[in-house]
Design a protein that fits this description.
The complex is a heterodimer of chains A (383) and B (452). Chain A is an alpha/beta fold and 383 residues long. Chain A is built from 16 helices and 8 strands. Chain B contains 19 helices and 8 strands. At the A-B interface, helix 5, strand 4 and helix 15 of A face helix 7, helix 8, helix 17 and helix 18 of B. The structure holds iron/sulfur cluster (2 copies). The site of one iron/sulfur cluster has 13 residues of chain A, from helix 4, helix 5 and helix 15.
Chain lengths: 383, 452
């Protein structure tokens, strides 16, 4: 298992280098996908190498000339990577989000790399609007045609179905890992789980599927030690692994999450039997019913209600919210979560994360105190 | 006292002490705005249905349907302009809203929370003598919520919170006004396939809005009244643009700050004769000033363009600041590229599609190349020397692309500078920084003029 994780780790540590190597080997174009809602399946079906663009650990240097310091770390990192030339190997970018900060970054990319096609198709954000299905179908059909034009190849329905099947298979593998961890059957660290999900965002799907098989073949059995807790938040990019290590080093172990680089990314499949555009449309529009996202609007489901249910189903004893500094969608909804958790007496802790170095010692004290308080409360309720 | 007679003791720290020469005609707007809010505060007593909305200038739909409307941004801007925002923002902070969140939203949500507190306890935690109380406690609760926010995702999320705060019981309607990315080969300002598709899409949603309003009031929507209301709006918009065009004169007879205080009429006041009267007054005063050679700034030496959202608690302050260095801010993205800026698109027989198109071309709803192209056209037209970018801390809707805007200004031989502030949170405003950067920009413009 360690070997497989190590290979995933290599891809995760330099995703664009991994993509460049694959391109060299296969001659396939590399398409960068921006989070959080675009199906990479279509780019895969077009014969491209899809790679979900990640935050990278480099400090923001040259990027400061093109993005304000009051933008989220992900946007600042994207701009910095762009200006450092990290995106030079991309053949196109797929983009359809609505987060105002990402919209700004897309324009910076266009200005800096006018030769790089940005296939921008803004998705309908009101998922329960009367026209949402028609609009979403239109958006994905448009994208389908644009990808064909870009690659010069027809995307057949069969190819799209195949890609959906492969992606579904990979998602199901990772969900299986989640289920085993939640059941206490395996002791997998939060860092390792992040490596698994993050690598699935950037690696060749077939290779990742094979590595997942390898992981299942050598899983360490036995329950993890520590207080079970649930992680929530962190839109668009992965929290620093050091923060996950810190949380688990304070006597907690993660039993579930709704992080984007986590459950949110793999939680649902597309219908393999349906027309592919229809399958993608349903997959997209049902998102908030399954895992509510603060960047989409729906009258139904609440994020806080979902989280309370997940705390119960995973038997977590507390919630740690990882909030990206300057992430507006999350800032709007945090008070809703806080109030609901206070009302139900479920311990919760907010950690604001930054792209730049964070004072981990001070954070450690906060997490230790939280784990202690939540642990005491858990002992009282089970006593 | 004229600046020449200032002694060392009375000399201002910055500039020459001159004040902006504001248009007198805009006072009528102040009266209209006060009357409008009075009408809002009376709404419940008068048995009117109240709709809260955010985003673009959709009130003609509400006006035509005899509703009372509260524009969230206008409410927050009004509180900030009257220096009444602090209490509302503090209440938002207390619930956990981060101060990096859009301050319009924080002010509006904070006000809602104050209302809720009042409802729950029958009291307020403010001292009854606090002058803020009068303004803050009058906002009538919504019977409907409508969201129509171009470009900025924050606007949509803000209304989601409003909807939740009222227990998800108030009917809500969301209109999506998608970004005109302008990536297709035929894209251009108001042209191309994307433009046509998006115009149809928004128009369709506006038609659905009329159904929503009819459904929740039990009354059919009156399209004749919509046309009637729009006839005044259209005429007012034409007069506004004609008056703006007159500011190509040197010295400029009006400034960006006059246009800022003229936003309310075209943004959210009822479409009636008052709007037309207001802009006739503004235009007439501008014509008189041109005839007399009178400028909005004494001894105008520099002509500037303002990019970014307004700093609502600093309107007068900023107007005077620029005037005190003989700089006239002649035009701006917020004022000159928005608020019915293409009135010819409105067919009064059938106004909905033209309205949709005006909503689509709000200043930040274009991808940067087209938007910046339009900014450059304005800068050429008004003979602009420098571009001032207000980096409004919590409004990314307007700070996106500002580095590109500044870069473009420099490319075309103009100066560019940034200053820090915010739409409604005064604590982000940095006066010294503005002073230093403005002085540096003025020097650079001088140097350039000398060299030429
Ligand atoms: S949703 Fe949050 S993390 Fe994602 S780009 Fe927007 S601000 Fe950044
Ligand atoms: S961030 Fe700016 S554009 Fe967005 S909702 Fe707030 S004021 Fe409006």
């Amino acid at each position: 298992m360690r070997d497989c994780l190590a290979r995933m780790e290599v891809a995760v540590s330099a995703p664009l280098t991994y993509a460049a190597r694959l391109k060299e080997k296969t001659g396939r174009p590399v398409i960068g996908i921006l989070p959080m809602h675009f199906p990479a399946e279509l780019a895969h079906a077009a014969g491209a190498i899809p790679t979900l663009i990640q935050d990278d650990p480099e400090p923001i240097t040259v990027g400061q000339s093109s993005v304000f310091n009051f933008y989220c770390g992900y946007n600042r990192s994207l701009t910095d990577q762009l200006l450092r030339g990290a995106f030079d190997g991309l053949d196109a970018i797929l983009f359809g989000d609505h987060c105002v900060q990402l919209l700004g970054t897309a324009d910076v990319i266009r200005a800096e790399r006018p030769d790089l096609p940005i296939l921008f198709n803004q998705l309908c954000t009101t998922l329960d609007a009367g026209w949402a299905a028609r609009e979403t179908r239109g958006t994905f059909s448009q994208l389908w045609q644009e990808l064909e034009a870009l690659t010069g190849q027809r995307i057949t329905t069969e190819a799209a179905r195949d890609s959906i099947r492969i992606y579904n298979h990979n998602r199901a593998q990772i969900r299986e890992l989640y289920a085993l961890r939640q059941a206490g059957a395996i002791a997998l660290s939060a860092r390792d789980m992040q490596t698994v999900v993050k690598s699935s965002m950037v690696m060749d799907k077939s290779e990742h599927i094979a590595l997942m098989d390898g992981i299942f073949a050598g899983l360490p059995s036995g329950p993890a030690q520590g207080l079970p807790i649930y992680l929530s938040g962190h839109m668009c990019h992965a929290p620093k692994p050091a923060i996950l290590d810190l949380i688990e080093s304070c006597g907690a172990h993660v039993v579930g999450d709704d992080l984007f680089t986590g459950w949110r990314y793999i939680h649902a499949d597309m219908d393999e039997s349906a027309d592919p555009v229809e399958a993608m449309t349903r997959w997209y529009l049902d998102k908030n019913r399954r895992v509510p996202c603060p960047t989409r609007a729906t009258r139904g489901g609440d994020w806080e209600t979902y989280l309370l249910e997940r705390i119960e189903s995973t038997r977590a004893r507390g919630l740690i919210i990882l909030m990206v500094k300057f992430c507006e969608p999350h800032m709007y909804f945090y008070p809703e979560i806080k109030d609901a958790f206070d009302a139900r007496g479920v311990p919760h802790l907010l950690i604001e994360t930054e792209h730049d170095d964070m004072p981990l010692e001070a954070l450690k004290t906060r997490v230790e105190t939280f784990v202690e308080v939540a642990g005491r409360k858990a002992a009282l309720t089970t006593a | 006292m004229s600046p020449d007679t200032l002694t060392a003791q009375t000399r201002p720290i910055f500039g020459n002490g001159e004040k902006a020469n504001k248009l007198a005609a805009t006072k009528f707007g102040g009266k209209l705005v006060s009357e409008y809010w009075e009408g809002v505060f009376r709404a419940k007593e008068e048995g009117k249905t109240v709709v809260w909305y955010n985003g673009t200038y959709i009130p003609p739909f509400f006006h035509a349907h005899d509703l009372v409307w509260v524009h969230g941004e206008a409410w927050a801007a009004m509180l900030a302009a009257r220096h009444r925002e602090i209490g509302a923002q503090a209440r938002g902070d207390a619930r956990g809203y981060d101060r990096e969140l859009c301050s319009y939203a924080r002010t509006h949500i904070g006000q809602m929370l104050i209302e809720m507190d009042k409802l729950k306890s029958g009291t307020s935690d403010l001292d009854p003598d606090d002058p803020r109380i009068e303004t803050m406690l009058k906002l009538p609760a919504p019977d409907m919520i409508v969201n129509a926010y171009p470009y900025c995702s924050s606007g949509q999320q803000w209304d989601d919170i409003t909807y939740r705060m009222f227990g998800k019981k108030v009917p809500m309607f969301t209109i999506q006004i998608p970004l005109l990315w302008g990536g297709r080969p035929d894209a251009g300002y108001m042209q191309g396939e994307e433009w046509e598709q998006r115009s149809d899409y928004v128009a369709e949603q506006l038609m659905a809005l009329t159904d929503f309003l009819a459904e929740h009031t039990g009354r059919p929507f009156d399209f004749d009244r919509l046309s009637d209301s729009m006839s005044y709006v259209k005429r007012a918009a034409e007069l506004r643009l004609e008056a703006m065009d007159l500011c190509t004169a040197t010295p400029s007879p009006a400034s960006f700050f006059d246009w800022i205080v003229s936003i309310a009429p075209v943004n959210f006041l009822p479409g009636d004769q008052n709007l037309v009267t207001y802009f006739e007054g503004v235009k007439a005063e501008i014509e008189t000033r041109i005839a007399n050679g009178e400028g909005a700034v004494k001894d105008e030496k520099y002509r500037l363009f303002f990019d970014g959202m307004m700093n609502w608690n600093k309107v007068g302050w900023l107007a005077d600041k620029f005037a005190s260095v003989n700089a006239c801010v002649v035009a701006g993205r917020y004022t000159h590229m928005s608020f019915w800026q293409e009135p010819q698109l409105i067919d009064l027989e059938n106004p909905v599609r033209g309205m949709a198109q005006n909503y689509l071309i709000c200043p930040n709803n274009h991808g940067a190349p087209i938007m910046i192209g339009e900014i450059e056209k304005l800068c050429d037209k008004f003979d602009i020397d420098g571009v001032v970018c207000h980096a409004s801390r919590t409004c990314r809707g307007m700070t996106n692309s500002q580095f590109l805007i500044a870069g473009s200004a420099k490319k075309y031989g103009r100066q560019a500078m940034f200053f820090e502030g915010d739409v409604a949170d005064e604590s982000f405003y940095k006066d010294e920084l503005l002073n230093v950067r403005l002085e540096a920009m003025i020097e650079a413009i001088d140097a350039r003029k000398r060299a030429a």
